[in-house]
Backbone:
């Protein structure tokens, strides 16, 4: 049976208890009920570690962790360093919107506006080792149609990563902006534009504009030596443990290390629009590009017939947006072989639930856990996870 291995500080318990009392138990589950449901989920899936945060009316009302952070059985705590995976994209989108509001970059300008030379001309080893191989696009001028908006809403026309192509070469599969296809290389290209076009250090900008702004003291776009003292390793789908990957390069597509306590602060700040105008905040979770495929992956699958598409599902800027029984919502996941994260928010109440896990098996429990925490949201689970057998 899963043992609860970390406790909320006395102050957080008082804050969380007050929030539930003021807002009514019908709106949110009690901390004890949520803990019990998570324990059942971990027992059912075999997951070794999980952490949760709840945000209501733009305020953090609960943060907790459960289980183990490594094979030695050391406890997963609310300040344990965990891999953020693709939730990094949402934080990057938030940072980019700040640049937009400062008129440093225009969402709808061609990336050619910012680059000193044509994208395929960047062939130096230090470029191609750090980013994708942009020289693969030589002779295809469609790169000039790419804009920050298109790159953030996964409309670039690329595969997820060029190295996954049969010949390992980056290419366009459709006209930029024509349709949705998840692409990490599209996000990395926007990072490249900021760094080589605007002269920015994306890791430093993320630190200053996001992590420092929200008091995320144990979050970084690259590995830090001080993370080692309280670090989450992980478990794969077969239950085999694996070490944490110490990422040595900033990747806007997914290099962020963080903690559940830090991510709770980010989720509260994001849903409240801290640091952005109301219009800028709204732009992030506005439907930008229709999602027309049956599932998120494989990324280049055919469009569904129009009658079979989920009409309310679309890409925002770094997140996915949908409509449900509680109105507009948005979500972002983060996944690798040993990581299963999900973040779901309902706009009307500025209410979110965030799960970070160092065990990919937890993903089978997320539809039920999110519904238990927030009620029915309409989050696109089948699109997100495909034919997974949910708990």
Residues:
């Amino acid at each position: 049976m899963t043992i609860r291995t970390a406790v909320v500080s006395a102050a957080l318990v008082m804050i969380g208890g007050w929030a539930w009392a003021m807002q009514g138990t019908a709106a949110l589950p009690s901390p004890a009920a949520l803990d019990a449901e998570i324990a059942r989920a971990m027992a059912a899936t075999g997951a070794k570690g999980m952490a949760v945060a709840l945000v209501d009316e733009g305020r953090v009302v609960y943060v907790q962790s459960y289980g183990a952070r490594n094979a030695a059985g050391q406890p997963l705590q609310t300040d344990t360093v965990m891999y953020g995976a693709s939730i990094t994209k949402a934080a990057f989108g938030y940072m980019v919107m700040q640049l937009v509001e400062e008129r440093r970059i225009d969402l709808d300008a061609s990336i050619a506006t910012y680059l000193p030379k044509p994208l395929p001309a960047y062939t130096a080893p230090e470029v191609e080792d750090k980013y994708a191989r942009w020289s693969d696009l030589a002779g295809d001028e469609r790169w000039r149609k790419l804009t920050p908006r298109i790159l953030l809403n996964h409309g670039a026309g690329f595969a997820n990563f060029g190295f996954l192509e049969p010949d390992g070469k980056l290419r366009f599969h459709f006209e930029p902006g024509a349709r949705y296809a998840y692409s990490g290389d599209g996000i990395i290209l926007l990072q490249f534009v900021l760094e080589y076009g605007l002269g920015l250090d994306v890791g430093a900008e993320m630190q200053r504009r996001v992590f420092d702004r929200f008091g995320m003291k144990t979050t970084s776009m690259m590995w830090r030596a001080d993370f080692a003292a309280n670090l989450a390793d992980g478990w794969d789908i077969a239950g085999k443990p694996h070490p944490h990957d110490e990422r040595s390069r900033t990747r806007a597509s997914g290099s962020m290390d963080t903690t559940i306590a830090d991510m709770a602060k980010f989720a509260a700040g994001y849903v409240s629009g801290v640091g952005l105008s109301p219009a800028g905040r709204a732009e992030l979770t506005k439907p930008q590009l229709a999602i027309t495929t049956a599932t998120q992956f494989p990324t280049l699958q055919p469009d569904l017939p129009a009658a079979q598409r989920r009409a309310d599902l679309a890409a925002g800027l770094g997140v996915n947006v949908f409509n449900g029984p509680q109105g507009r919502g948005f979500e972002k996941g983060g996944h690798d072989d040993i990581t299963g994260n999900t973040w779901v928010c309902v706009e009307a109440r500025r209410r979110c639930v965030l799960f970070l896990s160092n065990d990919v098996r937890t993903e089978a429990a997320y539809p039920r856990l999110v519904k238990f925490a927030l009620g029915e949201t309409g989050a696109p689970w089948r699109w997100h996870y495909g034919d997974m057998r949910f708990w």
Summary: Residues 102 and 244 are 37 Å apart (CA to CA).
